[in-house]
């Protein structure tokens, strides 16, 4: 029997107010236009249980470690029920946030030690050759004045979006630090310009990053 090549796993990250949602939609259309079979999903969430956990995570006050553990619990479910089966079927997965968000928000923002997350990553995502992690992560980066202005214009804010400016600054710094440590996987996109300018930049770079014909 001919084996199906594994699909690719793309995650999209950024501080709240970076404009990630608009670009995600564009990216999904761009991939579908290339005939790529795509599963769009998000974290926390992506499964019936994960979406319930999301509601609590975004609204309910809780101990900081409970917050981090629930992020990984939702992720375990998501990997088992959605992400791994899709990749095995040869479909691509486009995920709105993944583990990098835990390092940035619970690590950078909340100040929890990253060694604990590394152990949880090994547990939840597997270790060595069996590990599932994004093949490509797009990190939409904006300076704090841009993200806070975009948030101020939006709908009602959740528990993370309501955090103070220094929390968001730590989240951003942790994202950038993680990107510097894995520059081939995490591509930083300056998202402070116009939507069209960002999409033009993506259009030029994506075929290279994904090893696709332009
Ligand atoms: P977000 O992805 O910004 O969704 P929306 O665009 O609908 O607001 O919301 C998810 C929030 O969850 C975001 O503020 C970041 C936070 N989060 C973490 O703190 N840790 C994580 O591991 C993940 C996946 C998300």
How many structural domains does the protein architecture include?
1
CATH class identity: Alpha Beta
Task: Describe the main β-sheet briefly.
Answer: 5 strands, parallel
Bound molecules: thymidine-5'-diphosphate
Q: Do you know the CATH architecture?
A: 3-Layer(aba) Sandwich
Low-confidence segments: none
Helix content: 40-55%
> H/E order of the elements?
EHEHHEHHEHHEH
CATH topology: Rossmann fold
User: How widely separated are the two ends?
Assistant: 31 Å
Portion of residues in beta strands equals 5-15%
What is the CA-atom radius of gyration, in angstroms?
Answer: 17 Å
Structural class: alpha/beta
**Order of strands in the sheet with most strands:** 2-3-1-4-5
Number of strands: 5
The average pLDDT value, as a whole number, equals 95
What general outline do the C-alpha atoms trace? globular
Assign the CATH superfamily: P-loop containing nucleotide triphosphate hydrolases
């Amino acid at each position: 029997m001919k084996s199906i090549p594994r699909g690719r796993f793309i995650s999209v990250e950024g501080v709240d107010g970076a404009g990630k949602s608009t670009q995600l939609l564009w990216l999904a259309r761009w991939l579908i236009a290339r005939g790529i079979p795509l599963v769009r999903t998000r974290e926390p969430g992506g499964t019936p249980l994960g979406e319930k956990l999301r509601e609590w995570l975004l609204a309910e006050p809780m101990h900081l470690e409970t917050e981090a553990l629930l992020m990984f619990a939702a992720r375990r479910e998501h990997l088992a029920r959605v992400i791994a089966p899709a990749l095995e079927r040869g479909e691509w997965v486009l995920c709105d946030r993944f583990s990098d968000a835990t390092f940035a928000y619970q690590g950078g923002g909340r100040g929890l030690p990253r060694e604990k997350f590394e152990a949880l990553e090994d547990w939840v995502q597997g270790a060595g050759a069996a590990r599932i992690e994004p093949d490509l992560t797009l990190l939409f980066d904006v300076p704090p004045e841009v993200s806070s202005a975009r948030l101020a214009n939006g709908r009602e804010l959740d528990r993370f979006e309501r955090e103070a400016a220094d929390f968001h600054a730590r989240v951003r710094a942790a994202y950038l630090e993680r990107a510097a440590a894995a520059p081939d996987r995490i591509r930083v996109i300056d998202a402070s310009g116009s939507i069209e300018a960002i999409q033009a930049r993506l259009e030029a770079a994506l075929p290279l990053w994904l090893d696709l014909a332009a």
